[in-house]
Specification:
Largest sheet: 7 strands, mixed
Oligomer: single chain
Number of domains: 2
CATH superfamily of the largest domain: Alpha/Beta hydrolase fold, catalytic domain
CATH topology of the largest domain: Rossmann fold
Number of strands: 7
Strand order of the largest sheet: 1-2-4-3-5-6-7
Structural class: alpha/beta
Distance between the termini: 60 Å
Length: 234
Amino acid sequence: MEILKTFKFLSIVLLCFFLIIYFLIISYVYFNQVELIFHSSRLPKDYKFDYQQKFEEINIKSFDGTILNGLLFKAENSKGLVFYLHGNAGTLETWGKIAKVYTSLGYDIFILDYRSFGKSEGEIENEEQLSKDITIVYQSMTKRYPEDKIIIAGYSIGSGFAAKLAFENKPKALLLQAPYYNFLELSSKRVPMFPDFMKKFSLETNIYLPKIKAPIYIFHGTADQLIPFENSVG
């Protein structure tokens, strides 16, 4: 009888121990999920971008007064605009290097640094906030270019926001590079113990794509270790 009581007591102690560990892990992931997803870095406000191509530095005020920074690279005899949403790391200091790919094809390209990236102000809090930022910046670009001349492009983490933006608007086309099928599912595979209802980013690309009327082009490397190629295969 004493052995049974001891075993029961130890079982309860072990259960409480594992529950405490689980709670601590979940709490850490919840309060640090933005930093785990986005690896932002800042640039000084007086930083001067140095690119050989023609470009215009643009600052746009978001819904809460936060100033967002972007670069607009110009092509000769422009066919339109590529509105580009970059990945979860790096700033315009490096992302600007991709501009030549698009300008050489005759397209202007606007690249946005998300809040807390580069010279953009503020801090990322959740998907809704970042989506609002992107929408406001996109709307400012539609004042410069007819929407039927705008291609929305997104790379990696930016692909989900690009798909959502294309669903809510009427661009010429949507270009996705190394996209995820569903960010909720992808994050669940990485951190299976973290419940979906606590996640600040869902980005259900698979729900947006069937509802987009514009042509959709997907590019994905078969050796991608971060976001497996299978995410792009229907």
